[in-house]
Specification:
Layout lengths: L1 H15 L1 H4 L8 E7 L4 H6 L3 H5 L6 H13 L4 H5 L1 H10 L1 E3 L8 E2 L7 H10 L19 H6 L8 E5 L4 H5 L1 H4 L14 H13 L5 E6 L1 H7 L3 H24 L7 E6 L18 H6 L20 E4 L17 E2 L3 H8 L4 H5 L14
Parallel strand pairs: 1-5, 1-6, 3-8, 4-5
Antiparallel strand pairs: 2-7, 6-7
Helix pairs in contact: 12-14, 13-14
């Protein structure tokens, strides 16, 4: 009888005690990858360029005096004036690399230095020498989005939103089943819509891997509109701040989500007009009539990129290996993401770039 009463008493405690009756929330790693198309490392780490800003070919003189100079050039710390979240929170609590003035090395591994090859490399961990144009073609390669969607626990929790219309082809949404801009309904996206759909994907779809790809910076740079290019960078940085606040306010994501930020390629830095363009020597060998002035050199600097990361699963001290001989490369993004998500990246592709040295293996 005492044993029966004791059992009943224990059952009563379990039922009446919320702390015991409710199971602990499931903790599982998540990743949000964000890319900004064609942002130069010089602008990220030096802030607005004084020479470019003062050149009326790229900034109208009245805009320079009324807005660009006071907003971006007059502050003592120009890079924090332009990207306060990256150079404040991410640099303090995470990793930011790619500042060649400080000795960092960060680059793409592909030999094209433009978007389709760059995004393929980011998402597959390998450059593909067959991709030599930004063609409207379905990608033959399997991305980590496609592979991860087939893994247990990720079937409905992998998604992408992006500003460029070729992203469904790059991810091969037709074959992979990965949703890309599922709510566009025929509208050509802008970064404003991309940001909106990214927030929806997190709130509604509860993605465990979300890839957000912004594109306005590249479009504006090709147009030679430097002030609006800077403004797009500032808006992008503010999206990162808002995104991080959103993740940390949501128990599903809080302290379980790592944010990775990068770009698909850089931009030229000399002569001054080269900032509008990007492409490698190999591209000009294949297309000698495209812009003959770059046939012997390519657009120098446009293979240089940058990376930033924030959240659990990081070992910031590891970033030190990229000062000097070692170089962080875009092909390392894929394996880094899989490692952060507790997956064996070699099961995806043992020949892909290995995880960044600042990624701590999940235990």
């Amino acid at each position: 009888m005492r044993l029966i009463l004791s059992a009943l008493g224990l059952a009563s405690v379990l039922i009446c005690s919320p702390a015991l009756a409710q199971s602990a929330p499931v903790r599982e790693p998540k990743v949000v990858l964000v890319t900004f198309d064609g942002i130069r490392w010089e602008d990220v780490f030096r802030g607005a360029d004084p020479v470019m800003s003062a050149d009326k070919a790229y900034v109208e003189p009245d805009l320079y005096e009324s807005w660009v100079k006071p907003a971006y050039l007059d502050p003592v710390n120009r890079r924090r004036a332009l990207m306060p979240f990256v150079h404040g929170v991410m640099a303090r609590d995470g990793v930011v690399i790619g500042d060649r003035d400080a000795g960092d090395c960060a680059r793409v591994a592909n030999d094209m230095w433009f978007s389709y090859p760059g995004y393929n490399e980011i998402l597959t961990g390998r450059p593909d020498a067959r991709i030599v144009e930004n063609d409207d073609k379905w990608n033959e390669n399997v991305t980590i989005l496609e592979w991860l969607k087939k893994q247990p626990g990720f079937e409905r929790q992998v998604q992408m939103v992006g500003t460029w219309t070729l992203f469904p082809k790059i991810v091969n949404s037709q074959r992979s089943g990965v949703p890309v801009n599922p709510r566009l309904e025929g509208r050509y996206p802008t970064d404003v819509l991309t940001a909106r759909f990214a927030r929806d994907a997190l709130r509604t779809d509860r993605a465990r891997l979300l890839y957000v790809a912004f594109g306005d910076t590249d479009e504006l740079a090709h147009q030679g509109d430097y002030d609006q290019y800077l403004a797009a960078m500032e808006r992008g940085d503010d999206f990162l701040r808002e995104l991080w606040d959103m993740l940390q306010a949501d128990p599903f994501y809080r302290d379980q989500t790592t944010l990775i930020v990068s770009t698909d390629h850089g931009r030229g830095h000399a002569p001054l007009a080269a900032w509008k363009d990007h492409s490698a020597i190999r591209y000009h060998q294949l297309n000698p009539d495209y812009d003959p002035q770059y046939n012997s050199t390519g657009v120098v600097g446009s293979g240089d990129v940058w990376f930033a990361a924030l959240g659990p699963g990081l070992n910031p001290q590891g970033a030190g290996v990229y000062k000097g001989a070692s170089c962080a490369e875009t092909r390392q993004v894929a394996a880094s993401i899989l490692t952060l998500l507790g997956q064996d990246w070699k099961a995806f592709d043992a020949g892909a770039g290995q995880p960044f040295a600042f990624i701590a293996p999940r235990r």
